[in-house]
Amino acid sequence: MRVKDVMTKKVISVRPQATIAEAIDLMVSTHVSGLPVIDEAGSLVGILSEGDFIRRAELGTQKRPANWLACLFHPGRLAEAYARTHGRRVDEVMTREVATIDATALLEEAASLMEERRVRRLPVIADGKLVGIIARADFIRALASFVRQSYDEPLTTDAEIKAGIERELTAQPWASAATIDVKVSNGVVDLSGMLIDEAQREAVRIIAENAAGVRTVHDHLVWIEPYSGTVLIAPEDQAKGVAA
């Protein structure tokens, strides 16, 4: 999927000259946590988010100089911090270095950029203009369309379920596909064999559960602790009293 497929197209923005009070009222009334800042020419010049209001003089949360040396050697930096914590207009408080994403970019690119920049939203650009915004909530809505799919949908054959699970196991570099046996009967999957690492158990089970048409997954996988030789069987088998 691409950014344009899930982004919010109706963008609520604010002018650089707007007051902080006006911006806050707009954020509260529209239930958004961030506002792109657009100048009179329609260009994106910044973004205003909840994070820009965490350090404010009114709240007593502004950072103060650690010591007199900071005042002596970093007066410019301290002045900028003061302006952000005391500013009354959007352009005095907003974040100017804005990470943006192209509308045709893959969702993976947007997710990576959001993680890298540690931001909750990205303005979406097309032909140099702001055409939308993608936020974490948009990823959730996109994901919802997939996870709502019924697990009761019939598959053509059990063989296809088995092939799909084995294909996904083989594709994962962490999975020991050669040591895992997959059996399927009427959509019920039985996993047996040996794990290389106990941490693989949940991920292997998830692979099986996510295969289209699977109704139930039974885990009978075994892991042998390499140093002590202790055999760890699946929780499902432990509950049934199966011996290691």
Notes on the structure:
- Residues 70-75 have low confidence and may be disordered.
- The relative contact order is 0.11.
- A hairpin with a 6-residue loop joins strand 8 and strand 9.
- Helices cover 37% and strands 21% of the residues.
- The protein is an alpha/beta fold.
- The chain folds into 2 domains: 3-145, CBS-domain; 158-239, Histidine-containing Protein, Chain: A (2-Layer Sandwich).
Helix content: 25-40%
Order of helices and strands: HHEEHHHEHEEHHEEHEEH
Number of strands: 9
Strand content of the residues, in percent? 15-25%
At the first level of CATH, the class of the largest domain is: Alpha Beta
Return residue spans where pLDDT drops below 50 for at least 5 consecutive residues.
70-75
Strand order of the largest sheet: 6-7-8-9
First-to-last CA distance: 45 Å
Q: How many strands, which pairing sense, and closed or not: the largest β-sheet?
A: 4 strands, mixed
The tally of structural domains comes to 2
CATH fold call of the largest domain: CBS-domain
CATH superfamily of the largest domain: CBS-domain
CATH architecture of the largest domain: Roll
Overall pLDDT metric: 85
Radius of gyration: 26 Å
Q: Helix tally?
A: 10
Basic shape:
elongated
Structural class: alpha/beta
